[in-house]
# Entry
Amino acid sequence: MNKLLKTLLLALALVLILVGAYVLYNKLRANLPNSSIVVTEQAGTLEDSAAAPAEEEAEPQRTEDPQDGQADAEGEEPILAPDFTVQNDQGEAVMLSDLRGTPVVLNFWASWCPPCKSEMPDFQAAATEYEGQVAFMMVNLTDGSRETVDTAKAYIQEQGFTFPVYFDTQSEAANAYGVMSIPTTFFIDAQGYMVAYGQGALDAETLARGIGMLLPAE
# Structure
């Protein structure tokens, strides 16, 4: 009898622990932002912008203009965005470095990815709003089986998106950036240096914040 009672008490304790963990998890999740970006401070160092105090935006701290690609006040070197080659919708080779001189929003996506599709209307709106100021590279992970050039093009045409789409048929871009999940977005300044990146679907507000880091302060 005592053995049965001990077993029941242990089972009850386990249930209480699981319930408590579930409640705590939901409370913590409720306080997390739906989407966030990570600010690149220096080579090899990343700081989660969501961890910054609410009254203090987590942005790169530099004595010079953040667009100048120079080291910051502590002599920390900025991260140069890796170059790569992809194909445009005409099958022509395009390199990231071809866009040097213009800030770049680099996004990795696929038509089979629901989170990718959920953020695309906001990227379309941003590409239209910042036309001529920021270049958008919407890089499709074109593996030739799960995603092909044809399926990607069909999806873009069906949705009526007009932002530039590129096809990573050799996985060169994805490998260069270590992309393990999509969508993933990188914000690159006009000099080709990494400013921030975001993993998961970005909402319009977060996307605008990332773009704001690339443009000169007004």
Observations:
- The longest strand covers residues 104-109.
- The radius of gyration is 22 Å.
- Residues 111 and 155 are 7 Å apart (CA to CA).
- The chain has two domains: 1-32, 38-214.
